[in-house]
């Protein structure tokens, strides 16, 4: 009796009934149940019931409900049967309006959302998480693949482990990702990030907008033609294109969706740039040592292409603003150029072309095979030629130019000088024509700075120094019986008379220039008269000074030799042979 009294006293002291409101711990309850200064617990022992009864309330209505048999919670508004027994998953949670969390451990929040599979999560407006372990958030987004995620507006993740985010995207491949708007990732492990994209290749990644989609690809396996990376730059569904396309085989296309090389650029220029002049403290080039490569070395503004052995394309062997291409070429000088096979341009502004050519002088050029331009501003062309003199040029085969500004042509010349010249002297050989052999060097012609010309000799002592004989070609001139005026001997110094059948005379010859020698040979057997200037009927400048003042007559065969004097405007007879 005492216990009953005590319990009744406690209830009245702890619970105050105020109209229809019930207060626990408060004298002024403001709701049907008002608890202050205390936690509130709704509990049930053990796991959710295998044979659960109906929830406290079913059907439409507003309520906050703890469903002990299923360990589930609901708060908000139901308009149909979404909060009835069969639509409530064990340990599920749903709040908002018209939401259904029917999967095990599922959560649905917002309006009209559905979490229908185990461990699914749906939040927003009509979001649907229907696959196992899925998340759907936003407006009308659907995650139906296992462990799929759909977030945003009207996104759809149907592939297992797929993700779609943004607006109206579709991730249908396994582990695919579609983000942005109106994009689709249909291949397994593919991704589409952007607008109106379609990623069709296994493991492919598409970004940008309106990428090209006209190609055959495998959505489920590796294939060499698969596009593993592409940047779309189209403008509409009917005008789709790619700025960059990378294939599974490693080929990369810029402006083309079918790259035929590691880098394939079409219909565009290509620029590799660096600001300002070459660096005063350059770093190492991108690659050093042996190997095949095409390389732009920005720190030195230098370019290399081909194959190199050892260190010829390393930092210390690359000149600023230099160019080298081919096999094992070297361009070490500033502004230097080396092309071909094992060519070296070590001088500043030097150039080498061909096979084993070498240009060490500043501004030097070596072209051909095994040519060497060692002097400053020197040039070596041909085969085994060498130009060591400053401004010198060697051309031909095995020629050597050591003189200052000298030019050597031919083959196997005698270089005359022992040491290369850096300045001009009277004896500098300005021009040499070599005519030697592998064992014996010799010159056919040499012209020195002092004007002396050597023919057959490399040490001319006179203006023309000939070592050997001299031959003049003969020209046959037809004349008539009697007097012949202003006879044209042509560009010859030796003429033979033909035609006369009786005595004839010659009163003058054209083509006279100072010092020209002319020999007239008569083998006709007829008497020949050389008419003196005093009685000549030829033009004045073509007349002949016989030196005796009278005509010269040769009986039968004979010859006369004359030399022209421009001071006298006359041919001077210097020899007569009767």
Form type: rod-shaped
Quaternary organisation of the protein chains: single chain
Query: Uncertain spans, ≥5 residues at pLDDT below 50?
Result: 1-18
Number of strands: 55
Largest sheet: 15 strands, mixed
| Helical residues, percent | under 10%
β-strand amount = 35-45%
What is the typical, i.e. mean, pLDDT? 94
Which structural class fits the helix and strand makeup?
Answer: mainly beta
**How many distinct helices?**
1
Spatially, the strands of the biggest sheet line up as: 4-5-6-8-10-12-14-16-18-20-22-23-24-25-26
The CA-CA distance between the termini, in Å, is 187 Å
Radius of gyration over C-alpha positions, nearest whole angstrom: 54 Å
Structure description:
The chain is mainly beta and 578 residues long. It is built from one helix and 55 strands. Strands 4-5-6-8-10-12-14-16-18-20-22-23-24-25-26 form a 15-stranded mixed sheet, with no helix packed on it. Strand 4 and strand 5 (72-78) form a beta hairpin. The chain is rod-shaped and about 170 Å long. Residues 1-18 have low confidence and may be disordered.
Output the keywords.
disordered N terminus, 13-stranded mixed sheet, mainly beta, rod-shaped, 2% helix, 578 residues
Layout of secondary structure:
Layout: H1 2-14, E1 15-18, E2 21-24, E3 33-35, E4 61-67, E5 72-78, E6 93-97, E7 100-101, E8 107-111, E9 114-115, E10 121-125, E11 128-129, E12 135-139, E13 142-143, E14 149-153, E15 156-157, E16 163-167, E17 170-171, E18 177-181, E19 184-185, E20 191-195, E21 198-199, E22 205-209, E23 227-233, E24 242-247, E25 252-254, E26 263-265, E27 291-297, E28 302-308, E29 323-327, E30 330-331, E31 337-341, E32 344-345, E33 351-355, E34 358-359, E35 365-369, E36 372-373, E37 379-383, E38 386-387, E39 393-397, E40 400-401, E41 407-411, E42 429-435, E43 443-448, E44 453-455, E45 464-466, E46 474-478, E47 482-484, E48 494-498, E49 504-506, E50 517-522, E51 528-530, E52 544-545, E53 552-554, E54 558-565, E55 570-577
Parallel strand pairs: 2-3, 5-6, 6-8, 7-9, 8-10, 9-11, 10-12, 11-13, 12-14, 13-15, 14-16, 15-17, 16-18, 17-19, 18-20, 19-21, 20-22, 22-23, 25-26, 28-29, 29-31, 30-32, 31-33, 32-34, 33-35, 34-36, 35-37, 36-38, 37-39, 38-40, 39-41, 41-42, 44-45, 46-48, 47-49, 48-50, 49-51, 52-55
Antiparallel strand pairs: 1-2, 4-5, 23-24, 24-25, 27-28, 42-43, 43-44, 50-54, 51-53, 54-55
